[in-house]
Amino acid sequence: MAETSHLSSMAMLFISFFVVLMGNAEGETRHYTFNIRYHNVTRLCHTRTILSVNRRYPGPPLVAREGDRVIVKVVNHVANNVSIHWHGIRQLTTGWSDGPSYVTQCPIQTNQSYIYNFTITGQRGTLLWHAHISWLRATIHGPIIILPKLNQSYPFQKPHKEVTIILGEWFNEDPEAIISQALRTGGGPNVSDAYTINGLPGLLYNCSSKDTYKLKVKPGKTYLLRLINAALNDELFFTIANHTLTVVEGDAIYTKPFDTDKLLITPGQTTNVLLKTKPEYPNATFLIAARPYSTGQGTFDNSTTMGVLEYEHPFKKPSKNPTLIQPNLPQINDTQFVSNFTMKFRSLANDEFPANVPKTVDKRFFFTVGLGTSPCPKNTTCQGPTNSTKFAASVNNVSFTLPSVAILQAYYFGQSNGVYTTDFPVEPMVRFNYTGIAPNNTNVMNGTRTVVLPFNTSVELVMQDTSILGAESHPLHLHGFNFFVVGQGFGNFDPVKDPAKFNLVDPMERNTAGVPAGGWIAIRFLADNPGVWFMHCHLDVHTSWGLKMAWLVLDGPEPNQKLQPPPSDLPQC
């Protein structure tokens, strides 16, 4: 009996060990609760009631490993409707958890809750979560940190420490009031009052010397900085004075490492960099800085946020008046730097991290993106480009109108009538010199129009900036997919000559990429994720004006290629 008992206990031990191994292989389930609450915050000597998650600004990090299941209960304690988007998470067959209000879900109403439930498949690195309704993401945002699977390492030197740096914008006025007034008058919205590093404006702003971000480091160490641009309306340059940064990842995709002393990060993008500190204590303090890259004709917040990189001396207290080393950033509208910088991003494209860029294309699309106008209501004057027009924005001259119910819900239950149509134009309805003299008629059309894609369609999409109301850079974000940036250039896209220069070997894989001011970008992706997927400019003012559209990807034949049924607690409109 004793031997049998010993054998059974050994078997149980083996089974337990096997279960642990399988658990590690399959991933854990991680639970979070996000309470949306009012929260008083003082910046620039100005106290304002903001909306935040768990009364934190920026919000708490969501930390998981590749392969983990994540369950986030979002509870709305405020008067505003709210939804949360897990920016860059693929959401394979779990489109109900993607988050954009009126696209994949109705928003969560006051005193209601919703459980977001998704698995992180084949992704590791830095992403972000943020509110996805109106301009609430100004203060409702935070990092997503996806660690490699257990016992897997980074494809670069293990850092001494990892640090998250979130770039944002601070408004003394409620951003909801700002965009509401702009949409009513048809004019450009008031701009932010400061940029922030981890919620702090920094040295150059009024009342902000104490509200300055400090990064304390030791000499001779390597730090992994997880950089996130959570600003509402501004692409941002970033630098650390007198230090080289090695880019190793963008949008949670490893890159071929390259060195730079300054970066550009668009809203919605993330960039991981290695910072190698100086070998000896330098007896100086180095400024960290971020300021806007702006190419449009509208007003913008032309200020600079600054933090401090401070070396810890092993023996002495730091000097009270250390030498301040000043940063060096590109000019505000340095399109050439931006073009050169973005071209440096290349996928690793190796056996472990392949670049599975579609080599053949099933469907090609050509989208113009840019600004336009809408006529004023009768017997009123507006503050748009003329006193009879409002600012608008469009894709292929269609300014997207969000419906009053969620598109995904209407699609799933076969109730599309009156909610959306499937006739989004695959190319511009009127051809013109896109980057030349603008046409006389700048009015856009309005509609909730989508593109339908059969499952596993390989797509090539060229997005062309227009000079209507001025050429401008547009960071486009695609939900539900990563895409490969196979080409980009200035001027009008040439369908005969330009494809010959496409990079189909190691193009960068991203979820957000800038359409160059007065130029174009070509992307490819495989439509292997059933559901309704939003694509929009990540400058929120342009999204509000209509620079957005949606792809509707049909189910595939296999069970794991079908959109899962909606959860029982899906919010109602």
TrEMBL record:
Q: Name one GO molecular function term.
A: hydroquinone:oxygen oxidoreductase activity
Q: Which CDD domains match?
A: CuRO_1_LCC_plant (cd13849), CuRO_2_LCC_plant (cd13875), CuRO_3_LCC_plant (cd13897)
Annotated organism of origin: Gossypium raimondii
Major subcellular location class = secreted
Q: Where in the cell is it found?
A: Secreted, Extracellular space, Apoplast
Asked whether the UniProt record includes Oxidoreductase among its keywords, one would answer yes
GO CC: one term? apoplast
Task: Return the broad EC class.
Answer: oxidoreductase
- What is the E.C. number? 1.10.3.2
Q: Which residues form the Plastocyanin-like domain?
A: 36-149, 162-313, 424-555
- Required co-factor? Cu cation
Biological role: Lignin degradation and detoxification of lignin-derived products.
Q: What is this protein called?
A: Laccase
Keyword entries, A-Z: Apoplast, Copper, Glycoprotein, Lignin degradation, Metal-binding, Oxidoreductase, Repeat, Secreted, Signal
Q: Which residues form the signal peptide?
A: 1-27
Instruction: Name its GO BP terms in alphabetical order.
Output: lignin catabolic process
- The record's free-text note on cofactor binding: Binds 4 Cu cations per monomer.
